[in-house]
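Please, structure for the following, as tokens.
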Amino acid sequence: MIDTTTEPFAIETRQLTKKFKKTLAVDHLNLQVPRGALFGFIGRNGAGKTTTLRMLAGLLEPTFGEVWVNGERAGDKARKLHHLIGYMPDFFGVYEDMYVWEYLDFYARCYNLTPARRTKLIDELLDLVNLSDKRDANVQALSRGMQQRLCLAHALIHEPQILLLDEPASGLDPRARIEMRELLKELAAMGKTIIVSSHILPELAEMCSHIGIVEGGRLVANGNTAEIRAQLQFARVLRVRILTDQARALELVHGARNAGKPYIVESSASGTTLEMDFHGDDRAAAMLLAEWVARGAPVAEFSESGNALEQVFMQLTTTEL
């Protein structure tokens, strides 16, 4: 039973299902995306991500189930609610022989924006996506990364509250991926609710507040990473480098375990670098670090080894990416 007594989610699906002939692409999906979340929608190719986003955007009719936007069922008020949503597909085309400002102006006219509002909004969006200097450039002359940012500006032209972004970093070089990631963080800071699908897990881990993992069209996890890891009860790996000899480093770990710190499960050392299987939360890790520093340990590095999101993904899915 879905709890409807709390504040409505920005996006919620109830038993959302899509079949293509004999293929079940999305299978009774119950997705919940809080308002203001930067939500990572994760799954291997063919898991159902794109089909789900297209149903959320109103481009595909569900076979069964419902989409709710800000607490209202999309089926009842589709036109009104879809105005709240901006959609950026994984593959998109740009019109030839158009200037960048003309491209955005065309879509602004589709939303019946006044000339004055169009001019102001286009300038603001070009500044936001860092394309102001390309205002009078031909769209076809833009690099792949610039075209991606222009497509994002297109998705924002009607000032939606919710953004659906399907693989926005697909095909981009490392610099362009970093620029896209920073842009999404900026949009989240502006209060937008963002659902971004991707299989580039490290980048999602750096920016997402919540995640949903889909496998075979079914949702296998939905929440923030820390909550999901706690539910699964698997260890983090802490990496610690201490500016001293190996014996002293191991002494600190053994001392912590003997002092009643059961969250240190196993440890190993290579020189003065330690790796520990750690079952504690962030607060426990911070207290451990503070204790070692108070005891005079010259800690040069204290970090989490590996990628937590990859660990969650690998444990919850049964097939390879």
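DSSP finds eleven helices and 15 strands in the chain. Residues 1-5 have pLDDT under 50 and may be disordered.
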